[in-house]
């Protein structure tokens, strides 16, 4: 296998791994039966005129499976934090005691669980589409090598290897999605 072909293989593996890693990060945002600090990951707070992530201006803990505690580093940020969490429409109602925000994570209803599974499947499908697009680009790169004098047999072998890698990552996405669905539907 030529150096260019090896480069294409390494590049596609790395890109596809990034797609799976992104999918796993997106799955952390989905609310399951257990409270996690990642549930507040997408929430932005107006911090002196700049939209800032909650974790940049506060400490986020989960003392138990149903509670998230947000402790801002500046007490004057309690009310803006509470407003930002409410505005994020996560279904949380933060309780302000003057020192911290305490968020009780309500148990999910069956209907809400099904909605979250639909969103998870959509994210999984988006990851698969991304992986297939990477495969298409890699195959185009492989075909360009033929113009550079690489034999047709070597190109076919490279295309088969690209397809094999793609199939492996599609299976990985399916397994990750299946695991997340099971996690979401577990009461």
Unreliable sequence segments = none
Instruction: Look up the CATH topology of the largest domain.
Output: Topoisomerase I, Chain A, domain 4
- Rg from alpha-carbon coordinates: 22 Å
Strand order of the largest sheet: 3-4-6-5
What keywords describe this structure?
6 strands, 60% helix, 5 helices, 187 residues, Gyrase A, domain 2, alpha+beta, 14% strand, four-stranded antiparallel β-sheet, 2 domains, single chain, Topoisomerase I, Chain A, domain 4
Can you walk me through this structure?
The protein has five helices and six strands, in the order αββαββαββαα. The chain has helices spanning 3-29, 54-57, 78-87, 110-147, 152-185, and strands spanning 44-47, 50-53, 58-64, 67-72, 95-96, 101-104. The mean pLDDT is 89. The strands form two sheets. Strands 3-4-6-5 form a four-stranded antiparallel beta sheet. The protein has two domains: 3-29 and 109-185, Ribosome-recycling factor (Topoisomerase I, Chain A, domain 4, Orthogonal Bundle); 37-104, Gyrase A, domain 2. α1 runs antiparallel to α4 (110-147) and α1 (3-29) packs parallel to α5 (152-185). It is of the alpha+beta class and 187 residues long. The longest helix is centred in the C-terminal third of the chain and has 38 residues, at 110-147.
């Amino acid at each position: 296998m030529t150096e260019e072909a090896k480069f294409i293989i390494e590049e596609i593996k790395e890109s596809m791994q990034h797609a799976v890693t992104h999918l796993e990060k997106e799955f952390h945002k989905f609310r399951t039966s257990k409270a996690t600090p990642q549930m507040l990951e997408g929430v932005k707070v107006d911090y002196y005129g700049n939209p800032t992530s909650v974790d940049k201006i506060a400490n986020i803990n989960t003392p138990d499976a149903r509670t998230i505690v947000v402790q801002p580093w500046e007490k004057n940020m309690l009310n803006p934090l509470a407003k930002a969490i409410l505005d994020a429409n996560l279904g949380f109602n933060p309780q302000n005691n003057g020192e911290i925000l305490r968020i009780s994570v309500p148990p999910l209803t069956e209907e809400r669980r099904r909605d979250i599974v639909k969103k998870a499947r959509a994210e999984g499908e988006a990851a698969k589409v991304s992986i297939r697009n990477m495969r298409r680009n890699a195959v185009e790169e492989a075909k360009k090598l033929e113009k550079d004098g690489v034999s047709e047999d070597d190109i076919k072998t490279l295309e088969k290897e690209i397809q094999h890698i793609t199939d492996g990552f599609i299976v990985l996405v399916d397994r990750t999605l299946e695991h997340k669905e099971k996690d979401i539907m577990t009461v």
